[in-house]
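sorry for the late reply, my laptop died twice this morning and i had to redo everyting from scratch. anyway the thing you sent over, i finally got around to it. pasting the sequence first so we're on the same page, its 533 residues, then the predicted structure underneath. double check i copied it right bc i was rushing
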Amino acid sequence: MDRGPAHISRLHEDILHYIFELNADMYLDGKSNSSDDYGQTPWDLNDSALNVIRHTSQVCRYWRGLIISSPTIWSNIIDINHLRQVNNFWRKEVLRRTGNSSLSVKGVVKSKGSTGEFFADLMKNHWLRIQKLDVKIHDYQVLDNETWKALQLPAPHLEFFKVDIEYWGEHQIFPTADPSLFSDMAPSLREFRFTYPRGINANFTLRAPWLRQLRDITLIETFTLSDILDALMDMPLLESLELQNATDSPAVPRRCVHLPRLSLMSINTTSELRGALLVLESIVAKPACALVLDTFDGIMSGVHMEDIITVQKIILRYALGYFSSELMVVEGLTFRHHPKAFSLHYSPLKTSAIRRKPSGFEVDIFLNFPVTPEFFGTLQDSPFPSLVKTWDMQEGMLVDLAWEIGYAGWESLTSFLSLFPFVEVLQAPEYSLSVLLAAFEEDPGVWSLLHTLRITYYTTLTPIFSDTLLRFLDLREGDGLPIKVLDITDLAARENRDWGFLDRKGGLKVVWAQGGNYVCGSGEPEKLRLLSI
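ok and here's the structure:
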């Protein structure tokens, strides 16, 4: 056995330094750290970039020397969420170790306590050094005017700006109307997101000169769609666009906005369908652009069938371009059913530890009227149905699903299901399972490719659940279309239950956790019964 030095100790200093810098990158996973840490486990907290670097610096004297003497490592891990100590020593020490390097700052500011004071100090005394700023502020009034004035100063090194304000009071965020945000000087800015409630004067206009250099921008309802579209015409380098609360604007002239690099179009947070359509019809993105569309239209909706036809064409155009990309390994879309909603989701796998996960494809349209057969007219006569591989009946459907389908104008539930003949995975709670059982009895040939049943938790299982499940499995097997995989992970995590009754379904693979599975009839039925302990 080799008891010599560990192989990692032989790495060249430059390689070690590169590894340390990767570990110190708070943005490596593409997620924002400016979120509340409620619900995080101790493992999540220890896994933060700041704590990883601190622990790494304690491995040995050599590593400690490398890390302590590298200001660029410490300047990348100004994590406010993990600098909440009552004593100010550790915050000062981390900041001292950054030297004069550009700073990356993340976290949540909730009060005037240690985090509020630390953030205020960063803004007042180190603003010109900040390269990345990603913070959520619960109440901007916990910060004084001098703190906010920093945003009116030039930002020569700022590359990433993401500030979300959740609450506002009677006072404006800035004491004066001028100068404008960053004094209109942010030559290095590439990503910009500034969200705040209506009524706050953020001194930000769509005429700011630094907008034309952006790669990523989030815009909110404080701007009209007409002004947004005009501004986008001067942002040819844009790669990601997010619009929040997009609403229909009267008499908006049609225009064509070419964004040849746009790879993610996101319209969400209770946007109206007609407002979203105005944007989607105006923008010409790159062919493989991902689409995230989330709309909600309430009782006073002005949505017409022409709008439904138009949105189908747009979804189809984006979907076919996205899923034909050479970079995308398609496992299929997930269709989620609700009588008054239309949902499609696809989340690509993360294939690299040091590259961002590709953007997903999501459509959530909630209407104030039933989803009728006409809603799928354009999509039905296209390659689109072949992309839907997973059907998710995420709603409990405690109402009569069959009645809802009939009310929407469908001949039967099977006529609805038949629109998507390539479904391979079914996700359904107990109630939906019993409804689908009746549909399959009516037409055994529906979903002939279905091989996996994933039972989701909606409410406590009824006493007849076991019988319903066996009837479903027996029916598919009797029709020559057996279920091959039964995934009960969601149920096993919530309820103790003896699943031994499944052992008679020889060949059925039962999955209850990552790495936890059993092939029925293979002679170890106690594995299924142990799930009841």
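Residues 305-323 form the longest helix (19 residues).
thats about all i looked at so far, will dig more tmrw
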